[in-house]
Design brief:
The protein is built from 11 helices and 9 strands. By secondary structure, the protein is of the alpha/beta class. The longest helix has 26 residues. The site of thiamine diphosphate has 16 residues, from strand 6.
Length: about 325
Amino acid sequence: MQASESTLLWMFERMLEIRHFEETMASVYLEGKLPPHIQKGLAFDIGAGPVPGEMHLAAGQEPVAVGVCAHLQQTDTVVGTHRPHHFAIAKGVPMDRMAAEMFGKATGLGKGKGGHMHLFDPVHRFSCSGIIGASLPPACGAALAARKLQKDWVAVAFFGEGAANQGAFHESLNLAALWKLPVIFVCEDNKWAISVAKENATSIEWVADRAAGYGMPGVKVATNDALAVYEAAGPAVARARSGAGPTLIEVKTDRYMGHFQGDPEVYRPKDEVAQLKKSDPIEKLSAYLQRQGHLDEAAAAGLAEQAKRRVSEAFEFARRSPYPDPQDALQDVFV
Ligand SMILES: Cc1ncc(C[n+]2csc(CCOP(=O)(O)OP(=O)(O)O)c2C)c(N)n1
């Protein structure tokens, strides 16, 4: 399935936004967390600063999100992970309300009560969770709902290669195949589950090979490339939409930052990220667009500037927004 010029540009612009969102968050997150006396050490105060709590960023993993979401409509559901920003941006979740949620502000998607791992947007049909493996069952639920409502909506569950060893992975694939649910299961293999290398936790190289055991197609994307993901996801989304059932896709991708912000990353070779960045997926797509005559260097730089401006505006919105009223603390939550 060939991507049109407008789809290619859409993917490029979303990748630019995602990268800049993650890089901006990486620096904003540290504000207030590093008082001078520990600035040189590894420890910081995780509750301090404008963005309290843990933070998992997905710079480098943009192709997985945009290559799949380029095939989706607003009525399709996406369930992401504890590392959710790239999926949310690609699904159309507004960046200002996302950022505000991370700042704990009343204008956030969850009125500031969920934080970065619990983004929930019913309008754009996006949710995520800090529980590993928890994206797969709700995606099956959304797909079953679409079936019951007689809609051609599909659902996507994104998850890491670490999550593929959870029981929820196996139960969800079995159920989805048995009931031919319109789900696309997308495994992001970024090689690491926190500090555990894939080969130390998983008996096979490709999680996608497990698809055969459940009676569904398994699709392998060996390069961290938006076009390759787009081409792999097209038939899977079409298959789900037509009622033919689920597909498991695995993408080999690259995590540029630590597992969480503040991760000393002692478990991976010092030069690993520098090596990975030599085949950066945004530069690759930019070069492709330029070779195809869809962009020149100046236009690419212009799109990057516009993406930066949109991200800055989102962070400004978050900073300016009010905190929730303490009197509302017990509203919209389970008590
Ligand atoms: C059920 C559960 N077990 C353990 C954890 C702790 N934990 C958080 S992230 C993570 C590793 C996840 O690795 P992977 O699924 O490969 O995703 P990645 O972090 O690489 O995006 C673990 C074990 C958790 N959040 N939930």
